[in-house]
Design brief:
The protein is an alpha+beta fold. The chain has a domain of about 110 residues: Cytidine Deaminase, domain 2, CATH 3.40.140. The protein is about 20% helix and about 25% strand. The strands form 2 sheets. It has a 5-stranded mixed sheet, sandwiched between helices. Strands 1-2 form a two-stranded antiparallel sheet. A hairpin with a 3-residue loop joins strand 1 and strand 2. The chain starts with a strand and ends in a 7-residue tail after the last strand. About 30% of the residues are buried.
């Protein structure tokens, strides 16, 4: 039997080259890798409040000219494991799907997540869509075992809205 390919994590895969089926589909063998693009120095180590999350993300979200959606993935001690830019939207909308939010959470072994996005208008009051997306992401997180701790909406440099603090999560 001929060898098709050697994959370090899985060994050598055999290939049966004597039978060729024209309707066969080639299925890629894949692995998932995270690429660290940058890092942020966070002096308090743990996120214990919405203000802590605001502090770590404000440099990403406060002055953005369109809606940006970020996730902070936390370990079991509420220490940030990773920050992920989930979506960059338009002036007043950002498309967010659970698949995109949780795709990076699993490889970093996140036990919880804090969601965040900005309102370029400067008014952090949640829209109906913000509340619906938060509910959907919380339900998806429950299914896969990654708890949504909060969803923080950034307004101007000095104000934010925590859905958890206001009982909307």
């Amino acid at each position: 039997m001929k060898k098709l390919a050697t994959i370090p994590a899985y060994g050598t895969l055999p290939a049966n080259v004597s039978i060729i089926n024209k309707s066969a589909k080639r299925v890629p063998v894949v692995t998932i890798k995270l690429i660290r693009e940058a890092s942020v120095l966070y002096p308090t180590r743990r996120i214990n409040s919405p203000l802590d999350a605001y502090d770590i993300l404000k440099s990403f979200l406060v002055d953005a000219d369109r809606e940006n959606f970020y996730a902070i993935y936390l370990n079991t001690k509420n220490e940030p494991a990773a920050i992920h830019p989930v979506s960059i939207g338009s002036l007043n909308a950002s498309l967010v799907h659970p698949r995109e939010v949780y795709k990076a959470a699993i490889p970093v072994n996140a036990s919880s997540v804090i969601l965040s996005h900005n309102h370029p208008s400067g008014d952090p009051t949640p829209s109906r869509e913000d509340l619906e997306v938060s509910k959907r992401l919380k339900e998806a997180g429950t299914i896969i075992g990654i708890e949504v701790l909060d969803h923080i909406i950034f307004g101007s440099e000095t104000n934010y809205y925590s859905l958890k603090e206001h009982g909307n999560l």
